[in-house]
Amino acid sequence: MLIEHDIVEERTLPKEERKRDLPWRFYGLTDIGRDLFEEMGLLGAEGTLQDMYEMLETTDEIEKYAQAPRPGDDSEDEELTGSDALAAYIRDRKANTHSVADQISVATALYENGIGPDHEGLTRNEIAERLAFEYSSRTVLNHLVDLDILEEFQPPGPSTYVISERRDQIINGEAEETVDEEIERLIDNMVAHMDDRIVPMDDGQPGDRVVIADGAGRTIRSILADEFEVPSDDVASYLREGDRLTKLNRAVDAIEESEDIDRGDDYGRVIFRTAAYRYRLSEFGMSLVEGGASPER
Fold first, then answer.
1. How far out from the chain centre does Cα 260 lie?
2. What confidence tens digit (pLDDT) does each residue in 200-226 have?
3. pLDDT in tens, 119-165
4. Would you say residue 24 has pLDDT above 60?
5. Domains and CATH numbers, the chain
């Protein structure tokens, strides 16, 4: 079933390398499987499980099976340097992954562009903009981090940024007061425009208009009353209490999604952004490039 859904794939040793008393058929996650496990948060336990396995007391027979050659373990002995060393090392360790060509392309591109240990690194999106990926860029980078060829890190500074949409500024340390200010600006805008929805009179002359009272047409107040399922008269007090950040952003979303109201620029969301991880060749990756490496290393 897992193989049919391309989550797990079978990997076998060539016939000439098989031994009667050792396993020769193996199973591993495909890139699709790794993506799925990552989305479900299951790959985070990989290191813990490895540590637990290393602490186990095993018999000689179990150890023999554990050390049995896997598909892709064989390699040539020549010493390689530069991007060839990176490619050989990746191909040797990740030959059974679908994205091995993408992995080699990323490592080679970073090396050729000088994105090494002293560089500020590139975000995943920046790398994806420079290269054409056949497989998920996230999975490709995870494979390279797993090999310790790439270093994954966050740049110096806050790990999270708070942004005022209206001011188009980072407001770290001012989030709470900014949320309160934006809510009051929204309420002021709601009150100022609650009676200005107008339509032509049915029996009037061209240009004659009549004001629709608040609640009779689609006003900001009525939109938010529907969104939060509260009476129109309670919208302002509702916005001022509880989780004001969530209510502010949800209110702005509802107003923007309405076809009856032009939101304007008098108020805006308060947004939290996590600093993107950056990637660069690791010290080990550079040692492969500069010192040379055989695939057996």
1. 34
2. 445 544 443 333 334 445 789 999 999
3. 999 999 999 999 989 899 999 999 999 999 999 998 888 888 899 99
4. yes
5. 8-59 (no CATH), 82-156+278-291 (1.10.10.10), 161-274 (no CATH)
Closest listed residue to residue 29, CA positions, set 92, 94, 88: 94
Q: Chain-centre distance of CA 170, in angstroms?
A: 21
Residue type, 102: D
Answer whether 89's CB lies under 8 Å from 103's CB: no
Q: Kindly report the CA angle at 65 between 59 and 66, in degrees rounded to 5?
A: 85
The number of beta carbons lying within 10 Å of the beta carbon of residue 73 is 14
Q: For residue 161, give both structure tokens.
A: 């940024």
- Taking alpha carbons only, the member of 175, 165, 177, 170 closest to residue 267 is 165
User: Both tokens of residue 149?
Assistant: 């060829």
The residue with tokens 């009179």 is 201
Judged against a pLDDT cut of 50, whether residue 48 lies above it is answered with yes
| Torsion sign across C-alpha atoms 88, 89, 94, 100 | negative
Is pLDDT above 60 for 76?
no
CB 252: neighbour CB atoms within 10 A?
A: 19
Report the SS3 class of residue 25.
Answer: strand
What is the enclosing helix (H) or strand (E) of 122? Answer: strand 122-123
